[in-house]
Write a structure and sequence with these properties.
The chain has about 220 residues and is an alpha/beta fold. The protein is built from ten helices and five strands, in the order βαβαβαβαβαααααα. β1, α1 and β2 form a beta-alpha-beta unit. The termini are far apart. InterPro entries: CheY-like_superfamily, NreC/VraR/RcsB-like_REC, Sig_transdc_resp-reg_C-effctor, Sig_transdc_resp-reg_receiver, Tscrpt_reg_LuxR_C, WalR-like. It comes from Actinophytocola oryzae.
């Protein structure tokens, strides 16, 4: 099954580079390019891609606003967005995660990691494993007072709460399975239950909720 991607970046050379990397894979097709956030939204709504690769800083409409239009909480049929940025501690990226992005990468990421990230997001999983993601969430959740703990968290079992904490640390299902000495399929079931109970679309939303609610505190 071909993964259809829209590439949004204000630099033509960057778009061309991403296209070359992605289309070197037999299962990935770049269906459109966009030089600004507004064009990205238009292209995504027209082509309904499996993933939008979205730059943060773009003219007309920035990547955060475009992400919110495509994947925000109020969007009935969201398009998965993978944000890509130059800086590993960029408050705009955290804002993009809060706006509904399924994850983010740095622009200097290795080509194989970019391809893997696109496949992960296309499969419906949030990309929260990289250490830079954990650092960013920790850094920018520290700057504001956490809101009251959502009532849905009280509905988690002890095991589900443990799973949420490990997901918030950036562990993959396989790493969680190794940590808890259970099967990966068991972890996948627990993660699915956690997302359903919390009303989260994917792992990224669950991680942000865990930090913002104070269930997980930066540095702990």
């Amino acid at each position: 099954m071909t993964i259809r991607v829209v590439v949004a970046d204000d630099q033509a050379v960057v778009r061309a580079g991403f296209r070359t990397i992605l289309e070197s894979e037999v299962d990935i097709e770049v269906v459109a390019e966009a030089a600004d956030g507004s064009a990205a939204v238009t292209a995504a709504r027209r082509h309904r891609p499996d993933v939008v690769l979205m730059d943060v800083r773009m003219p007309v409409t920035d990547g955060i606003a475009a992400t919110r239009e495509l994947a925000g909480a109020s969007v009935a049929d969201p398009v998965p967005v993978l944000v890509i940025t130059t800086f590993d501690l960029d408050e705009y990226v955290f804002a993009a995660l809060r706006a509904g992005a399924s994850g983010f990468l740095l622009k200097d990421t290795e080509p194989d990691d970019l391809v893997a990230a696109v496949r992960v997001v296309a499969a419906g999983d949030g990309l929260v494993a990289p250490a830079v993601t954990r650092r960013l969430i920790a850094e920018f959740s520290r700057v504001s007072e956490p809101p009251p703990v959502p009532g849905a968290l009280a509905g988690l079992t002890e095991r589900e709460r443990e799973i949420l904490l490990l997901v918030a640390k950036g562990l993959s299902n396989t790493e969680i399975a190794d940590t808890l000495v259970v099967s990966a399929s068991t972890v996948k079931t627990h993660v699915g239950n956690v997302l359903a109970k919390l009303g989260c679309r994917d792992r990224v939303q669950a991680v942000v909720l865990a930090y913002e609610s104070g269930v997980v505190r930066p540095g702990r």
